[in-house]
TrEMBL record:
Domain of life: Bacteria
Species of provenance: Chryseobacterium profundimaris
Name of the protein this chain belongs to: Helix-turn-helix domain-containing protein
Pfam families found in the cross-reference section: HTH_17
Helix-turn-helix domain span: 41-83
Amino acid sequence: MNQIYLQNFTKDELIEDIRNSILSEIKVILDYNIKPPGDELLTRKETAKRLKIHLSSVGRWVKSGDLIPHYVRGKVYFKESELPI
């Protein structure tokens, strides 16, 4: 059995270091934002391009209820699966 010896670490420092490493990995996973296919979030510009409409029309479609906006960290996105065909 392999053994690892740590010097200059207290038990609490080791626990805190492990906790920070785990939280860092969780943040990477959440930031990667894995979504099922077809549920991609599109920006206003990408949405306009996909629907072949002018960028200014996106706002009018939101007001009319034809597009449902989703807000992530203060930015507007649209779910690809919710775009009108």
